[in-house]
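Meet the record:
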Amino acid sequence: MSEELEGLVKIVEVEPIKDEIIIIEGFPDVGLVGTIAASFLTDKLQMKEVGYVESDALPPIISVKNGKVLDLIRLYSGNNIVVILSEIPVPLPIIRPLSQKIIEWAISKKAKMLVSLTGMPEPGRLNIDIPKVYVLGSNMKISQDALKIDGVEAFTDGYITGVKGMILRESIRRDFDALLILSQAHFNYPDPGSAAETLKYLSKLLSINIDVKPLLESAEELKLRLRDLMRRTSQAMQDVQKSRELELPAVYL
């Protein structure tokens, strides 16, 4: 990473994070699937906030919850897992440096693997009761191991843009183990149902118990609460699309 990019994004540990962890990122994108799943995971596993991402390229905003000031992009730890949770879509100027910094940091922590959670736009989502889940690894072994779990298919064709695509690309370049989990989702609407299917697969992958029933029961509340984040995320995804001068294909992420 160049010195210029090094200074653009920093990962700050407010408490020591041990090595050989599994990292899960849930940056907002299609259907807010990653955000919903990652947030639910941190809550159910009672994870502790242990760090944050710092960058002058982030908007000058802080989050306040229950009287506590929070950074926009935070790290949570528990059960040998670190979750990266963001309350904002990643601004276009720092997508690449942030992705590079995350993989660089993961390698420095000797992380076992990084898992990206995302949605895959499905025009007919309203007619789908149980969304399909797909996987794509940074190498053949990761993909093959992921496909050994029932109820998942290989992602073989399409586009992956934004921070998810750049994280996977950087993982391949750095020979780091990473897995992208995609589930069919609404493109412009929060999709807790899709997030639930992602979590079901993730629980099998990591051998942890995740009961998604509470998530499904609060689905309507989540859809209302996350409307503003979904709106801002949709705009950010359009900005990424314009930056690449591509038309939106059916499997655009």
